[in-house]
Structures are given as structure tokens and as C-alpha cells.
């Protein structure tokens, strides 16, 4: 028998789109401009950081190169232009190369690493699907109740697992019942409920979605500590209200009352020793995250615990490490590096001085940032939006005399509320690809839910936080 | 990048029937037909030139001057076709041909003529799904032609953006 020749994968380079070619060109121009043109009031380090920041804006908005590539480019450029390894003469070193590279292992990246490993373990042992099956039971029978159950469970999973993975898991469960429903509105409502709940659920915890990590990382870098539980107190009220509103809106619009729907899911928990060990480690980690005020161990350190224990016990192995979403981690790291570079170079002070911010009411500035965050992340990556806007927001906080934590959290949450288009988030892209949701339905629900979410975020949350003494 | 299915069948009415039965997949995937092996290789070239990806070959066995099994064996020697799933759609392959198809061409499925259209579509959907899973392709552009619930696993490790 002739063995088939060994196959070597062919690497095909994608052809750049017109937008990407334009982005490369404009990116190069805006990068060079501050390097060759003297900008009044901005010292050389600030000018170099401005060049990097402008390049990052253009590349992240146009995706001229992949998002993660822009993130590592930001890190490299900071080393080459602003550290002791700078290749251009004539600027003081405002950063050490070690501190720039350290963004790749920032405590918040370590926290995410732990979150990712637990999420991947949950998939490996089928825990997410089994939990969904058990939790779904009280909601069986009626379509509206089923949608409520699906949304609550999706959001709950999405607080700890990436929004995308949660959506994929839930669709794998739901597609069989989706095709059993008669074609029409009820299917649309059901298929929309999952990405909406996954996007909204991501607001709930620091590990829920990358913008949260970006805000946390940059706040931590400037000495503002927000604990895991602290984040949840800030964000879960919004998450729950938006979730219930979204359920009300989607079911009134798409799911008639009294439609019988039986989602019979069978839970089949893995009872192997490895799986049991995993359950204990995952439950222990979450418990430690939620009880930080009692023991004082930071959430990052707690996040590293499952990494150590799962690897030591071989419940998870090097192979599981390899498939972690490193591009997401590095995208966040790029944002953290960008934020600290903007602070260290004095660019933040210069940006603040561009506009007489103190003449605007605080609320107007917050509304502006949240609306820009929502709008931009509707068409580009949520993480890239947060990478660009969170440092700006933190810079502005001093100028408008508001708390940096509040404004950074508001901006991060606004980035996650964008869900009006299939390209807004990967969960939306998945729902759209199922063919059950058209762009119009996604846009109308996304705009309404996003607008209500941002309205509550800007006008409802800060007073609530003040009332509770959280910020 | 579209996934392409190549139908190799020399008899026009049978070829048309196969194409017609797969018509519901049009839009989600590219469906190409060929009447002989030379024609099939020309189609392979076109698919490649368009940056599409040959995912599945449905081949008849008895062809003018050659056999479908020979063609399937040839597919393994070419970079552009090695990864394609291979299905024989025939009523005329004897035991020796079939053994050769399994052992030397890596045959994935045998569909006996006359086929049941629903069964044929199920076979195509399943083979495309296997192809996407095996090569970890992005399933979203082709989802309508795939077993959507099964390919969701590929999206799990994609990550938020």
C-alpha cells in the first residue's frame, strides 16, 4: 500500500483589503508626523508616544494588521522609542524595556490566564454544558420562560468563560431545538437571546471580557485597586437590569406568549478523578475570588493558583496551555502598555490640556466617552476600543475632577454593550451565521439594548455607586 | 474563501441530478461539475486560482478511459486536493475497486446509485463538517452547509475581541 505523502500545510497570505491598505498608509503617515514635526508644549518623549498612539488608533480601527499584531507593535515601539534601548537619540528614557515587556505578564494578564484555564477546563470536562442542563430545568415548558432561562444561564457562564465560547456552547445546545421550532419570529428571538446574554454577561466580572481587564490593568498600574468582588459590585447591578430588559424586549418582540417549548437537556457529569479535581479547583478559585475582602489575596494571585494546581495534578497539561487564547491576552497587554506609556511620557497631561475640560459638566464628558466607546466598538473590536479609550478616560478623570475608577469602568462597560451588527462581537457573528437572525433584527435589538444599557450606565450607575460608597 | 464540492460524473442526466439535489447548498458553498478527469483537474485549478478550497469530491467510478477510484488516488498526490473528503457515488464498483478506494485513496464514504436525495445531502453535510473540523477552518462562512451544532466547538477557542 502506498502511504500518502506527508502533507505540509500551505500558508496563504490574505490579500489586504482597500481599508487595510489605506490603514497601512495613513498609519505610517500619522506615525511619522509627530516624529518630524515639532509639537508645541509636548516634549520629545511625549511626541514619540503620540506617534505610537496615533499609529495604534489607525491600525486598531482599520485592522491594517491583525489586532494582536498592533498590540505587540505598540510594545516594541515603546521599547525602541522610549526606553533605555531607544534607537533614536534625543529623548530621555521614560520607561525601562523590562517594564514595557512586563505588560505581557501584567497581574491582570495572570488573572485572565487563570480565568482562561478554568474556562477551558470547564469545556474539557463538559462542566459548562452540564451546568446549563441542570440550571435549565426550572425554565422548561414555555418559550418565553425558556428564553429567560437560556439568557440567565448564558450570562452566568459568560461571567467566567469568554463571551464567544459561551455563545458557541449554548448554540451547540440550542441549535437542535431551534430547528425544531417553526421558521419565523420565535426562532429569531431565541437565536438573538444567546449573543445578547453572552455580551451582557461579560460585564459582570473582571474575567468576563477583555475590556474589563484593560480597565482593571490600567487602574492597577496607577495604584487604584479594584478587587474581583469590587468589580462585581460595580457591574452586576447593570448586568442584571440590562439582561432582564433584553429578555423583556426580545420576548415581547419575537416570542408570542404560550408557545410550548421543551428544552430537555440531559446532564451527564464527568465523575472521573481528574474531573472531580477540576471541579474542586474551579469552585475553590471562584470562592477565593469572591472572598478577597476576607483573606486579602489579590485576584491575580488567586488566578494563578488554578494554573499551578491544574498543571501540577496534570488535570490540565501543556497542551491545554498551548490552546489558550494568547492573542486575546496579548491584545490586552498591548492596551496596558499603551496606557502606561501615555502616562509615563506625559502625553496624558498634554492631551488633557488640549480642551478646557473643566468648562464641561462631568456628566457630559462621561456621556461623550461612553457614546464614543459604544459607537466605536460597534464597528471595531471591543478590546481595541477599550485599549484606546480607557487611557484617555483615565487622563481626563484628573481634568474633570472625577474618580478614575468610575470613569474607566464606565468606558470599559460601554465597549461591551455594543451589539448592533454581526461584526460588533464574535457572539453576534455566530448568531448571524446560523441564518436565523438578519442584520435588521440584530441592529434593532442591538441599538435598543445598547442605548438602554449606556443610559443606565451613565445616568444610573454612578449615583448608585456614590450611594453605596463604592467609588 | 468558499468551500467547493466537485462532482465528477460522465453521464449528463446523472450529473444534473446530483447537481440539482445539492442545489440547496448553493450560496453557502461552491458546487462544480466535471465530465471527465481532465475536466476535473481543470476545475481543481480554477478553484485554487480563486483562493477557494476543494473540500469534497463526489466521483462516479466508471469513467471514459479511467476510473473514479484512480482519480481519487491521484488526489492524494496533489497539495490542492489532498485534504478533500472523498465519496464514491456509483453502482458499478466491484469489491477490488472498493477495497482499493478505501485502502489507497482514503475513501470516506460510499453512496450507492440510485441515491436518496435527502441521504445524499446528509452525506455532503457530514463530510463538509468533518473537513472543517479536521482542518480547524472558520466554520461561520459555510455554516448553512454544515452541521452547525457540531462545529460550534471550533468557535470556543476563538476568543473575544
Secondary structure elements and pairings:
The complex is a heterodimer of chains A (471) and B (161).
Chain A lengths: L17 H19 L7 H19 L4 H16 L14 H5 L5 H18 L2 H10 L4 E2 H16 L4 H18 L4 H17 L8 H12 L6 H27 L5 E2 L11 H18 L1 H4 L3 H14 L5 H5 L3 H19 L2 H8 L7 H18 L2 H19 L3 H13 L9 H8 L5 H30 L3
Helix pairs in contact in A: 1-2, 2-3, 3-16, 5-10, 5-14, 6-7, 7-8, 7-9, 7-11, 8-9, 8-21, 9-11, 9-21, 10-16, 10-19, 10-20, 11-22, 12-14, 16-19, 17-19, 18-19, 18-20, 18-22, 19-20, 20-22
Chain B lengths: L2 E6 L3 H10 L8 E5 L2 H13 L3 E7 L2 E2 L2 E2 H8 L9 E6 L4 H11 L3 E4 L4 H18 L13 H9 L5
Parallel strand pairs in B: 1-2, 1-3, 3-6, 6-7
Antiparallel strand pairs in B: 4-5
Helix pairs in contact in B: 3-4
Write up this protein.
The complex is a heterodimer of chains A (471) and B (161). The radius of gyration of chain A is 23 Å and the shape is globular. A two-stranded antiparallel sheet of chain A has the order 1-2. In chain A, helix 9 (185-201) runs antiparallel to helix 11 and helix 18 (362-379) packs antiparallel against helix 19. Chain A has helices at residues 18-36, 44-62, 67-82, 97-101, 107-124, 127-136, 143-158, 163-180, 185-201, 210-221, 228-254, 273-290, 292-295, 299-312, 318-322, 326-344, 347-354, 362-379, 382-400, 404-416, 426-433, 439-468; strands at 141-142, 260-261. The longest helix of chain A is centred in the C-terminal third of the chain and has 30 residues, at 439-468. Chain A is an all-alpha fold. Chain A starts with 17 loop residues before the first helix and ends with a helix. Chain A has a domain at 107-322. Helices cover 43% and strands 20% of the residues of chain B. Chain B has a five-stranded parallel β-sheet with strand order 2-1-3-6-7, with helices on both faces. In chain B, strands 4-5 form a two-stranded antiparallel ribbon. Chain B has a single domain, classed as 3-Layer(aba) Sandwich (Rossmann fold), CATH 3.40.50. In chain B, helix 3 (68-75) runs parallel beside helix 4. Chain B has 161 residues and is α/β, with parallel strands linked by helices. Chain B starts with a strand and ends in a 5-residue tail after the last helix. Chain B is globular, with a radius of gyration of 15 Å. Chains A and B meet through helix 8, helix 16, helix 19 and helix 21 of A and helix 6 of B.
Amino acid at each position: 500500500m502506498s502511504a500518502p505523502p506527508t502533507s505540509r500545510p500551505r500558508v496563504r497570505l490574505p490579500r489586504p483589503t482597500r481599508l487595510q491598505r489605506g490603514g497601512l498608509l495613513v498609519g505610517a503617515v500619522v506615525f511619522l508626523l509627530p516624529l518630524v514635526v515639532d509639537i508645541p508644549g509636548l516634549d520629545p518623549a511625549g511626541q514619540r508616544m503620540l506617534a505610537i498612539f496615533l499609529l495604534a488608533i489607525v491600525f486598531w480601527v482599520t485592522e491594517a494588521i491583525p489586532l494582536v499584531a498592533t498590540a505587540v507593535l505598540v510594545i516594541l515601539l515603546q521599547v525602541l522609542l522610549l526606553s533605555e534601548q531607544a534607537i533614536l537619540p534625543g529623548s530621555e528614557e521614560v520607561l525601562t524595556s523590562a517594564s514595557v515587556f512586563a505588560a505581557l505578564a501584567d497581574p491582570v494578564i495572570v488573572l485572565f490566564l487563570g480565568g482562561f484555564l478554568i474556562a477551558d477546563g470547564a469545556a474539557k470536562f463538559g462542566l459548562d454544558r452540564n451546568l446549563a442542563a441542570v440550571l435549565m430545568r426550572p425554565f422548561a415548558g414555555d418559550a418565553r420562560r425558556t428564553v429567560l432561562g437560556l439568557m440567565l444561564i448564558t450570562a452566568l457562564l459568560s461571567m467566567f468563560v469568554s463571551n464567544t465560547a459561551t455563545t458557541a456552547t449554548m448554540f451547540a445546545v440550542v441549535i437542535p431545538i431551534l430547528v425544531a421550532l417553526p421558521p419565523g419570529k420565535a426562532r429569531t428571538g431565541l437565536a438573538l437571546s444567546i449573543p445578547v446574554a453572552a455580551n451582557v454577561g461579560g460585564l459582570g466580572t473582571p474575567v468576563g471580557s477583555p475590556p474589563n481587564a484593560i480597565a482593571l490593568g490600567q487602574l492597577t498600574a496607577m495604584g487604584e485597586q479594584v478587587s474581583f468582588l469590587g468589580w462585581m459590585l460595580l457591574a452586576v447591578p447593570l448586568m442584571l437590569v440590562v439582561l432582564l430588559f433584553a429578555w423583556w424586549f426580545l420576548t415581547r418582540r419575537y416570542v408570542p406568549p404560550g408557545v410550548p417549548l421543551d428544552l430537555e437537556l440531559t446532564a451527564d457529569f464527568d465523575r472521573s478523578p481528574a474531573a472531580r479535581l477540576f471541579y474542586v479547583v474551579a469552585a475553590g478559585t471562584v470562592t477565593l475570588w469572591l472572598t478577597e475582602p476576607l483573606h486579602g489575596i489579590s485576584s491575580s494571585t488567586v488566578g494563578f493558583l488554578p494554573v499551578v494546581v491544574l498543571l501540577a495534578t496534570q488535570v490540565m497539561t501543556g497542551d491545554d496551555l498551548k490552546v489558550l487564547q494568547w492573542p486575546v491576552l496579548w491584545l490586552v497587554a498591548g492596551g496596558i502598555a499603551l496606557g502606561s506609556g501615555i502616562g509615563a511620557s506625559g502625553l496624558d497631561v498634554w492631551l488633557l490640556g488640549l480642551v478646557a475640560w473643566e468648562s464641561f459638566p462631568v456628566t457630559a464628558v462621561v456621556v461623550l466617552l461612553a457614546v464614543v466607546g459604544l459607537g466605536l466598538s460597534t464597528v471595531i473590536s471591543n478590546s481595541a476600543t477599550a485599549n484606546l479609550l480607557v487611557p484617555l478616560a483615565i487622563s481626563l478623570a484628573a481634568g474633570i475632577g472625577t474618580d478614575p475608577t468610575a470613569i474607566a469602568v464606565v468606558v470599559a462597560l460601554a465597549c461591551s454593550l455594543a451589539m448592533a451588527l454581526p461584526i460588533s462581537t464574535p457572539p453576534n457573528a455566530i448568531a448571524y451565521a446560523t441564518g436565523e437572525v438578519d442584520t435588521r433584527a440584530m441592529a434593532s435589538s442591538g441599538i435598543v439594548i445598547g442605548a438602554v444599557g449606556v443610559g443606565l450606565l451613565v445616568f444610573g450607575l454612578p449615583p448608585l455607586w456614590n450611594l453605596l460608597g463604592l467609588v | 474563501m468558499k468551500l467547493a464540492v466537485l462532482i465528477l460524473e460522465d453521464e449528463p442526466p446523472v450529473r444534473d441530478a446530483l447537481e440539482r439535489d445539492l442545489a440547496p447548498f448553493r450560496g453557502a458553498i461552491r458546487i462544480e461539475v466535471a465530465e471527465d478527469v481532465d475536466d476535473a483537474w481543470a476545475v481543481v485549478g480554477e478553484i485554487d486560482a480563486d483562493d477557494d478550497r476543494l473540500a469534497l469530491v463526489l466521483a462516479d467510478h466508471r469513467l471514459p478511459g479511467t476510473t473514479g477510484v484512480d482519480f481519487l488516488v491521484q488526489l492524494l498526490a496533489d497539495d490542492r486536493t489532498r485534504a478533500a473528503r472523498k465519496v464514491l457515488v456509483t453502482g458499478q464498483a466491484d469489491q477490488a475497486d472498493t477495497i482499493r478506494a478505501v485502502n489507497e485513496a482514503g475513501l470516506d464514504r460510499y453512496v450507492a446509485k440510485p441515491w436518496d436525495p435527502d441521504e445524499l445531502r446528509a452525506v455532503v453535510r457530514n463530510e463538509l463538517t468533518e473537513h472543517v473540523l479536521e482542518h480547524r477552518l472558520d466554520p461561520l462562512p459555510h455554516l448553512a452547509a454544515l452541521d452547525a451544532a457540531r462545529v460550534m466547538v471550533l468557535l470556543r477557542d476563538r476568543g473575544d475581541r
